[in-house]
Design brief:
This protein has 267 residues and is of the alpha/beta class. The protein contains 10 helices and 8 strands. The chain has a single domain, classed as Alpha-Beta Barrel (TIM Barrel). Helix 7 crosses helix 8. It is globular, with a radius of gyration of 18 Å.
């Protein structure tokens, strides 16, 4: 299994805003696009891709199954709708967006349905998102670690998620970091600014490089072409051990995404 290291996030982007973001991202070299059923922008993304002229074979598309579509009877039909909106016959990765609140739908039922979708060619890989150590252990018990392509979770310099990261590493499970820039919070961080100056970089690039250097994939979003290009250039930055140690001190458990009634009990 292979998850590309750098992609475009599209959370909260809709209509012409997401169309412009995707088109600009594809223009400057992005080939990975991350969306979700609940984002309400799959059709816009499908349009942007179609208009870009970039061949589908060059792209890596991820979508996520919303909590209302996790049952055996609804998951595959909902994924087919997503594919229709995205104007493709398959996605490269399908994730369970959030654990079923209160375990309303058994995890085994959802993962079995995802595996069926994979067998049917609707998705090349499957994975999870927002899974804690205990939920990840449960998923591994159901489908095996080799069948979980990634766990997409919030990781930023301010939320380093060390317990989960250590468990995932121990189990050989890849992590994708979302909100790596802490909703822009890192942009004015003095320490990141200092490290950025030393590297002739931006604080955003330093935060992304920090995540990439730990083996995480990143999916930052932006609506501005120059920021899309700048973010992508983070792949060329190599931080020193001292840089990494200094950034480690920024961890303060500051979580941006924890929707009430949906979020699990975090590690």
């Amino acid at each position: 299994m292979n998850i590309p290291a750098f992609g475009l996030g599209t959370f909260r982007l809709q209509g012409q805003t997401v169309i412009g973001s995707v088109r600009n991202a594809l223009d400057v070299g992005y080939r990975v696009i991350d969306t979700a059923q609940i984002y309400g922008n799959e059709a816009d993304i499908g349009q942007a891709i179609a208009e870009s002229g970039v061949p589908r074979s060059e792209l890596f598309l991820t979508t996520k199954i919303w909590i209302e579509n996790m049952s055996a009877s609804t998951l595959i039909p909902s994924l087919r709708q997503s594919l229709e909106k995205l104007r493709t016959d398959h996605v490269d990765l399908t994730l369970i967006h959030w654990p079923s609140p209160g375990g309303a739908v058994p995890l085994k039922e959802t993962l079995d349905a995802l595996r069926d979708a994979q067998t049917d060619g609707l998705t090349s890989q499957i994975g999870v998102s927002n899974f804690t150590t205990s939920l990840l252990a449960e998923a591994i018990a159901v489908v095996g670690r080799e069948n979980i392509a990634t766990n997409q979770v919030e990781i930023s310099p301010y939320l380093q998620n060390r317990k989960l990261a250590a468990f995932a590493r121990e189990q050989g499970i890849h992590l994708t970091s979302y909100m790596t820039l802490a909703y822009g919070g890192v942009l004015n961080d003095p320490l990141l600014g200092e490290i950025a100056t030393a590297h002739g970089a931006t604080p955003a690039q330093i935060a992304l490089a920090w995540a990439l250097q730990q083996g995480y994939a990143v999916i930052p979003s932006s609506t501005r072409r120059e920021n899309l290009q700048s973010n992508l250039n983070a792949v060329n930055i190599v931080l020193t051990d001292e840089d990494m140690a200094r950034i480690a001190t920024l961890d303060r458990g500051e979580r941006q995404a924890s929707p009430e009634g949906i979020a699990p009990e975090w590690d």
